[in-house]
Structure formats: structure tokens, C-alpha cells
């Protein structure tokens, strides 16, 4: 009954003691990329979030397919994966913030190439459906990511909130 328990504990301990890579902290003037690897989003839903991030002294670049709509998704699986891949591979992008969750990120994982990203890590931020991306990166690449508030949920009035301030400070 307990034969597999020791093996599972050993694997868990190995994962817990593996040194995680911390992406570099952002500096004023850095550029972050916005992507939607899951559900679609409308431009007006992100206006205040973009203003908040720009007020942090950062530049914002939207993925080419950010505002596309394909059924419930922000574009096809290939379009969503393409945006994420472009942001992971662009040295000018210092962090990637996923704008919303929903469903669909898992459908993009097999389309992504993490080789460059693994040698040039950057923060990836999000929660909900983005958790599958965190899990993959944490487990396979041993790179830290941020399970944190996404722009869709930033205050609509553009004011700071405890969670946006915490995200700013961590980045």
C-alpha cells in the first residue's frame, strides 16, 4: 500500500530542493509585453491597466494578436502561441504579463519553443488558466514566475491597489 510513497516523497524533495532561476528585476524604462494566451479581451478592458503600468515607468507592447477573437479565445491556438513565443524570444521585452485567464493556455504549450527563454528568462505573470504555463516553466525549466494579478483585474479607475503595488514591487 505504501510502496510508492517513498519514491513520491523522494521526487517531491528533489523538486523542492532544485534551485530556481530568478529572472532579472525590471528597471524604469524597461518594456513589458501583454499577451492573451487564453480568452479574448477588448481594448477598453485594458486601458486603465496600461496606464497604471506606464505610470510605473515601463513601456507596454501589445502582442500582435492580443485583441483577436476566435470563438472564446484571443485568436487561434497558433496566434496565441505566436504572441507568447515572440515575447519570450524578444530581448527588448523584460517581462510578459498575461492579460486574462479563462481557458486555452494548455492548447498552446505544445506549440511553444522554450529553448531561448530557458537561457534568457524573464518574468511571466498571470493566474487562473495561466497556472498551466507557470507549472510547465517551474517544473521543466526551474524558472520562477509570478502567480499574480492580471491587467483585466486592475482597478478600472487607474488608482493603485494593494495587489498592483505588490506586483510593481516584485517586478
List its traits:
single chain; 171 residues; alpha/beta; 6 helices; 5 strands; globular
Give a verbal description of the structure.
- The chain is of the alpha/beta class and 171 residues long.
- Helix content is 36%, strand content 12%.
- It is built from six helices and five strands.
- A five-stranded parallel beta sheet has the order 2-1-3-4-5, with helices on both faces.
- Helix 5 links the parallel strand 4 and strand 5 (146-147).
- The radius of gyration is 17 Å and the shape is globular.
- The protein starts with a helix and ends with a helix.
- The model has no long low-confidence stretch (mean pLDDT 92).
Strand order of the largest sheet: 2-1-3-4-5
Give the beta-strand count: 5
Task: Count helical runs.
Answer: 6
Shape by Cα distribution: globular
Question: Main sheet?
Answer: 5 strands, parallel
List low-pLDDT spans.
none
Whole-number mean pLDDT: 92
> Terminal Cα separation, in Å?
45 Å
Proportion of residues in extended strands: 5-15%
Radius of gyration: 17 Å
H and E string: HEHEHEHEHEH
Task: Report the structural category.
Answer: alpha/beta
User: Percent helix among the residues?
Assistant: 25-40%
Amino acid at each position: 500500500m505504501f510502496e510508492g510513497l517513498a519514491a513520491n516523497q523522494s521526487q517531491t524533495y528533489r523538486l523542492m530542493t532544485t534551485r530556481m532561476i530568478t529572472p532579472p528585476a525590471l528597471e524604469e524604462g524597461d518594456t513589458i509585453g501583454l499577451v492573451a494566451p487564453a480568452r479574448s479581451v477588448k481594448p477598453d478592458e485594458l486601458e486603465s491597466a496600461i496606464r497604471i503600468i506606464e505610470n510605473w515607468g515601463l513601456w507596454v507592447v501589445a502582442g500582435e494578436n492580443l485583441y483577436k477573437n476566435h470563438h472564446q479565445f484571443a485568436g487561434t491556438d497558433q496566434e496565441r502561441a505566436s504572441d507568447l513565443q515572440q515575447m519570450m524570444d524578444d530581448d527588448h521585452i523584460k517581462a510578459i504579463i498575461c492579460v486574462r485567464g479563462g481557458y486555452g493556455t494548455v492548447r498552446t504549450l505544445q506549440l511553444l519553443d522554450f529553448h531561448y527563454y530557458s537561457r534568457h528568462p524573464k518574468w511571466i505573470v498571470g493566474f487562473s488558466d495561466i497556472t498551466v504555463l507557470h507549472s510547465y516553466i517551474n517544473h521543466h525549466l526551474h524558472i520562477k514566475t509570478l502567480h499574480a494579478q492580471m491587467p483585466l483585474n486592475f482597478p478600472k479607475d487607474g488608482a493603485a491597489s494593494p495587489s498592483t503595488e505588490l506586483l510593481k514591487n516584485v517586478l
